[in-house]
Design goal:
- With about 180 residues, the chain is of the alpha+beta class.
- It has a domain at about 1-20 and about 40-55 and about 65-130 and about 155-165.
- It has four helices and ten strands, in the order E-E-H-H-H-E-E-E-E-E-E-E-E-H.
- The protein has helices spanning about 35-45, 45-55, 60, 155-165, and strands spanning about 1-10, 15-20, 65-70, 90-95, 110-115, 120-125, 130, 135-140, 145, 150-155.
- Strands 1, 2, 3, 4, 5, 6 and 7 form a seven-stranded antiparallel beta sheet that branches.
- Helix 2 (about 45-55) packs antiparallel against helix 4 (about 155-165).
- It is globular and about 65 Å long.
């Protein structure tokens, strides 16, 4: 199974930035202003949204997720999380690719979340590129079923969301390394 997370229009990510998610310890290494800290801040600041996505009763909403969002953690001005280079909403895409047997017949499962500047958001599920809303899909537990098609196990997607809410945020520490030393 492969999982990826793509961000766009969040802080410095005007263009889509994709990170492959794997088990174990992950560190971001790169030049200054590449977005390493911004990506980690995303995992902290938007944790409430990820938890809201996990805990939503999609059966009641028939996968037509559109809700208000209470805002980002540790952010006083909620507009600061949006890119200041355009007026587009933040887009978050989580994509799971695996063998068809693992997802009960499909190969790709995708969740696209759009966070609008008025702090409302909506989410759409895609199965092998098809929007589940247009297929008359219904989610019961972690099994997605839709008219005329087999059922799809979406548990890997919710497992990925859960893991993202449990990530540990360690802010930039380049300026604290020299604390207590006698050199610059």
């Amino acid at each position: 199974m492969q999982a990826s997370l793509t961000l766009q229009n969040y802080r410095c990510f005007l263009q889509p930035a994709t990170v492959q998610l794997r088990k174990g310890f992950t560190a971001f290494v790169g030049v200054n202003n590449a977005g390493k800290s911004a990506f980690m801040r995303f995992l902290l600041e938007l944790r409430p949204l990820l938890q809201q996505l996990i805990n939503t009763d999609y059966t009641r909403n028939s996968l037509n997720y559109a809700q208000s969002y209470n805002g980002c953690l540790h952010v006083l001005d909620q507009q600061e999380v949006f890119s200041n280079l355009n007026y587009r909403p933040i887009e978050l895409t989580i994509e799971i690719t695996t063998s068809p047997e693992d997802l009960l017949g499909c190969a790709t499962l995708k969740l696209v979340v759009t966070i609008h500047r008025n702090m409302t958001c909506d989410a759409l599920f895609y199965i092998d590129g098809l929007n589940t809303k247009t297929l008359g899909a219904n989610l019961i537990g972690h099994i997605l079923s839709f008219t005329g098609h087999s059922q799809v196990n979406v548990e890997p997607l919710f497992d990925t969301l859960t893991l993202l809410t449990q990530t540990l945020y360690i802010g930039p520490f380049r300026n604290t390394i020299n604390v207590g030393t006698k050199t610059d």
